[in-house]
Amino acid sequence: MTARYRRLVRRWLPEVATIAALVALPFAFDAWLGSVDLFTRILIWGIFGLGFDLLFGRAGLLSFGQAAFYGTGGFVTAYLLTSGTLNNVWLAMAVGIVAATAFSVIVGFLALRRVGIYFAMITLAFGELSYFLENSPLAAWTGGENGLPGVPAPVIRIGGFDYPFAGSWPSYQLVAGFFFIGYVLARYIVLSPVGLVLTGIKQNPERTAALGHDVAGYKLAVFVLAAAFAGCAGALLGIFQSYMPPDAFDLATSGQLVIQTVMGGAGTLIGPAVGAAVWLSLRDVLQQVPAIGSLWEFILGAVFVLLVSFMPSGIVGTIARLGSRLWRSPGVLAAVSMADNVAAAEPLLAPLPLVRTPAASAAGYALEAKDVSKSYGGIHAVDGVSLALPEGSLHAIIGPNGAGKSTFLRLLKREETVDSGRILLHGIDITAADVTAAYQYGLSKSYQINQLFPQLTVRANLRLGALARERGRLRLDVFRSAEGFAQVEALVSALAEELGLAECADLVVNTLPYGEKRRLELGLALASRPSVLLLDEPLAGLSPSEREDIKKLIRSLRKGRTILLVEHDMDAVFELAERITVLHEGSKLAEGTPKEISNDPRVREAYLGGMAA
Amino acid sequence: MPTLAQFLSQAFNGIALGSLLALIASGLSIILGTLGVLNFAHGAMFMLGAYAAFVVLGHVDSFALALAASAVVLLLVGLGTERGLIRFYYARPKEDQILVTFGLGIMLVEAVRYVFGGLSQPVPLPSWGQGIVNLGVFIYPLYRVEVIGIVSALLLGFYLLLYRTRIGLVVRAGIEDPLMVELLGTHVRRMFMIVFTIGAMAAGIAGVIYAPLAAVIPNMGEPFLVECFVVVVIGGLGSFPGAVVGGIVVGEILSLTTLFNPAYAQAAIYAAMTLVLLIRPRGLFGTMGRA
User: Fold this and answer.
1) Across the interface, which of B95, B266, B267 has its CB nearest the CB of A60?
2) Which residues form the domain of A47?
3) What is the pTM of this model?
4) Which range has the top average pLDDT, A34-38, A125-129, A180-184?
5) Which of A123, A290, A584, B227 has the smallest CB count inside 10 Å?
6) Looking at the complex, does the CB of residue A258 fall below 8 Å from at least one CB of chain B?
């Protein structure tokens, strides 16, 4: 009962605090400046920032072109109202937001083809493009450098009376209402599976894709969502000022949004509003000081550089970190409440039952590679290799360094395209599938070098893997809690138990020792309940006793699934594998039972050739 | 329809503007390619060079002195920035590097605004650049012809530095694989410092050459920064030939579109960028793999 109560408080406390701030703070601003307008302005930036924080703070996508959508939302709304095309302000706002999102689909489609630095440059370029379009070719509609004056305020009808949101306080009520709705929505998204996937994309996009999530799709979704927030904020700006200014499209607008978000704290949702409060208040204050008035932007620039250098989590992020150090209770509660599920979860660790198709039944093989080749330049990394794994078998690939083992696994897991040949999973051709689809089909892989989500807890790491097959490649279930899938939670707890990670399930991964990380790496591959598991050197870098643990784990986790193991530890290979394939210079040298392989003179030659002489 | 003379004249403008863009963008591009840092303060560094020219040419008619002054200013700013700021950011996410150089750019622009004021101020042409020249079918300002010559010489020098010297070899190897260069025993940190400074100086020298063509104003670097991004996206990351070809392409698109409809000049370069992104996302001369 108390646990449930505490969880409710934890879920809704930020919303309650936000309401309190939205009620109390305007009076403080009114008392201080004689008007609530500055606070209204801060909240418009705050709405703009809610979307940007999902994009940058969550998914790690640094866009320098958000002004494009802010301006589009604002100008479309303003044009519809000032030209008399629409009389209903609410409807005009909705059209403005739709226009901004439509524009963002095009920009996102292009900009999201690249990441990091390129993404920043391309979004900035599209921001500038929209600025020039507004200024010249579209000037007949947008007023060019003059903007659009005379944007009306919306009206609601309460019991026969009209209440227009015009003037300082009514405008504040309008903007505060939108801010609150936006904040609640953004919180839902952060706590949903979508929010978890976005965090995964920020920390390790390749692994997120390998865990069955459609990374490109989620990126586009959050980009469009951020544009919707931007469009809404732009529309509110025009309504609040009764004037839509052309500098909404300015590069400086995008830049100011970035600065405010980083100052306030990226990834905190409320951060951009706090940053806006700092920026706009300091500007007003500094401009009053005679000696430094004209230096205000220099000072704010310097403050920004110092913040990025020494306080990268921003004002809210830093306060939150200090606060959580003083007042910690989470984690343990969740672990206890899940514990009772574990006993019943044993069958969860077995592979998901296959949907039997005629092809699958006919094949009899879980995984089949037919004459697969891949070359880089002139080097034949994998040269016509065929392999067939019967269902439930444990097969190993060995070979000297550079034999093509890891490349072959990457081809099987669809991380790279084959030059020729076919790959069949349970008789179904997956040669053209991508890495995400392969995971969805029940083919997963653990990596030679750990590919984890370092800033998430062990539990959240496993959850990210387990959610993909429960939810499919792409689903925008933003009103569900990421922790609300009973089946997934039971699987996560059972996996943590099986991997010996139950004790540290609520610790952040980058605080764990290497052995634990290695087990979690294996756990991520298992979280989809795969029917076929590829293990790329699972014992790499482990101590002898840890190796024993992993070997035990591999045996206990078979439960009828098919395993393909690449490993340099020959003792482990000969102990675990039922059949062994030897690769040498990209081709298959030999295949057979461990006994046959150890007696094969060609294998001895390949391994010992250089040294025996 | 424009006459042949108008067309050729604009095409010449395109080369003059494009070669300047090529010079600025090649500085941006080698920093990006070698250090992996996108220098958002690059536009501000271009502006610093232009203000150095404004100060010098306002007092004495010596273009050489203006070039030297800008070189010294950017040498100090470049070195100071790399040693005092950027080097602490090599291990941090790319996004942090963008943010900090963005903040630095604001500081440089605002500092100049504080010292010289926010108004646009003219810069005199050097005495040998005044007048016009008859190029057969059309008449053209002398200085612009000279700009093409000066910038070509500078780009050639840049090319020789990158492709014909030891340091250039190390820089190009660093663009391919910084880790390997370090493993092979080259002092990568010192190379980073040199590359950043050279890149900053390229922007500053371009600023000197540009200043007499227009006027100086503190935020003059911003459009050049954005156009350089377009050049780098079109030409390819870290590629010197890409920066040169991309610069000329962007310069020509800007000039020739202006001939037909000035309102679409800017839009046209973004259309070209979009086309490259769709057809060849790595850029004309870029290699895949580095993002």
Assistant:
1) B95
2) 2-326
3) 0.91
4) A180-184
5) A290
6) yes
